[in-house]
Amino acid sequence: MSGHTSSPVGRSATGTDDVVMSLENVSVHFDEKQGFVDSLFNEPRRVKAVSDVSIDIPENDVLALVGESGCGKTTLGKTIIGVQRPTEGSVSYRGQDVWDAKDGVGDVTIPHGDIRKALQMIHQDPGAALNPNRKVLTSLEAPLERWDPEMSTEDRRARIFALLDRVGMEPPQDYAHRYPHQLSGGEQQRVALVRTLLMNPDVILADEAVSALDVSLRVETMDLLLELQTQFNTSFVFISHTLSNARYLAEKAGGRIGIMYLGEIVEIGPPDEVLNDPQHPYSKVLRWATADLDPNEQEMVDPPVRSIDIPDPVDPPSGCGFHTRCPEAREACKRSAPDLDAENAAPGARCVACHRTDPTHEYWNSEPLAGTEDTTTPDVGGDGR
Ligand SMILES: Nc1ncnc2c1ncn2[C@@H]1O[C@H](COP(=O)(O)OP(=O)(O)OP(=O)(O)O)[C@@H](O)[C@H]1O
């Protein structure tokens, strides 16, 4: 999706004032690590992990990002919370460019320290994120001491105990004096959650935060995340491999699902629209792969793709990144990249990056690619649905 300036998806109905994070035309590229000998003879391969993504995260938003392994979910999530520096494009927190604040460039209105505090992350493996040699209380006190050195020990502890209590770790004084190995996986995850909430953040990135838990605990933890999201007015960016977890969270929170493919968001919108009536051919593949979303649905035998080979993110296909696998791809898809068409969409509406959503696009007059279905007429409206 390069070569155009796309407008961010996700502006809320009330305008831009309540937008917490704004990404504009963000790309993130990595140089692959090389061995010493390799580095003498070859240029490093550049992985295009995120390509030209524009998105807003308003206050109280829940965005669930899904897509197959390696499609760039974690990289985009980390870019949203200002942990990963973009190669191109801008990332702003309440109007302040995050990386200008970090580098002290220009007129910095929000110090980088405040931005870091406002953007937090819960890791996939909370056990690894907690110091095994420190009691829970010490692990929780450390960031509070760093961010708010004026706070008295008494106030600090009162806040920690109140939050431990809030996430169901009662009596909190007991849990506070345990070491991580004396906690279950679910309890460790709650401590990790408390650690982020102590900062009173605006946005929390939860990267596969429930995948390591038992199924029963997963639902309980997702419910807790949602309760806390409402109570603390925090926005959540939730990364998931599975559509069912993403759906659970986004549906309950009235949030959005963003489907990623090869570094791009290809479809985003309310979960019922994106999952019950997917418009992007790749969203249809994900839907197919998650048959349990609707047990009454007749099982489709073959995946709706021409090829199961995922392109190399070092050398992504020209035009639409999905054209090499799309059963509906045409010559036009090789030539030009569709954008999410957020410009014309209503706030919170579904947006799709596919030429087929535009009934006037040259796609309809171009030749189907070898092995594709010959669908000659537009089957979708031009309203981004
Ligand atoms: N620090 C890095 N250096 C080099 N390549 C990286 C780095 N981080 C990520 N990548 C590459 O960028 C691409 C996107 O990775 P990312 O972890 O964002 O995907 P993901 O969708 O979160 O994957 P998963 O679901 O497996 O965690 C992958 O090809 C990955 O190998």
UniProtKB/TrEMBL annotation:
Alphabetical GO biological process terms: peptide transport; transmembrane transport
Domain ABC transporter: 21-287
UniProt entry keywords in alphabetical sequence: ATP-binding, Nucleotide-binding, Transport
Signal peptide range in chain numbering: none
Molecular function as annotated in GO: ATP binding; ATP hydrolysis activity
Residue span of region Disordered: 362-385
PANTHER family: TRANSPORT ATP-BINDING PROTEIN
Protein name: Oligopeptide ABC transporter ATP-binding protein
